[in-house]
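To: structure subgroup
Subject: Chain for Friday's discussion

All,

I'm putting the inputs and outputs inline so they're searchable in the archive.
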Amino acid sequence: MYSVLITGGSSGIGRDIAYKLAETSSNVYITGRDENKLQQVIEGIEERGGTGFYRVADVRDSEQAEITVADAIEKMGEINVLLANAGVGRFKRLEEFTDDDFTIQFDTNVKGVFNYLRPVIKHMRDRDRGQIIVTSSNLGFETGARCGIYAATKYALQAMIGALRDELKGTGVKAATINPGSVDTPWYEGSNADRTKMLAVEDVTAAAMLLINQNPSSDIDHILLKPGIN
């Protein structure tokens, strides 16, 4: 049984991991910006045997993050797993990106993770235990056309979590990234992408559960997921 805080928990990867954790009778606290979707996920968590909590919050707002973390600790007693999952991607040629394209991706994908890391790390250090998981991307290790800004945010995440791992040495707190290729989620609804050649959301959930359930003697740095041969 775990007490887990998930950002971006209203759909896709966050929702699927919340449901899997609910099957272990865990406490699961989710955030997102759509209250109706959050409420639906809470119903799904409780149907699967978990205890669900939610808060409408924008990860870009550091004050909301502090309030959310404090509320999660009050309701669950502790946070022993943080899944920083919320993210946004915009894809076009570099010269076509606007200031807004740049800002929203860095504020969501990088600052949004930092906003939750800061209070959660303090909490986990005090308890000398915990698992931090950041949903990153294979584009945190390689890049390509039309994804320059999104990939830059994921490279930044790898640097931030790499530094954090060094800072956590000698403690019972662990930090890792999950780095999937394209995943068949609502992100691609309305696009021309071939979703038959993507990872299934369950693949990412399995990676998250591996990190959560790893032995005390193990400290996984990252998990890089690529689609199988179709």
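Points worth raising on Friday:
Helices lie at 12-22, 35-47, 62-76, 99-127, 148-167, 201-212.
The longest strand covers residues 173-180.

D.
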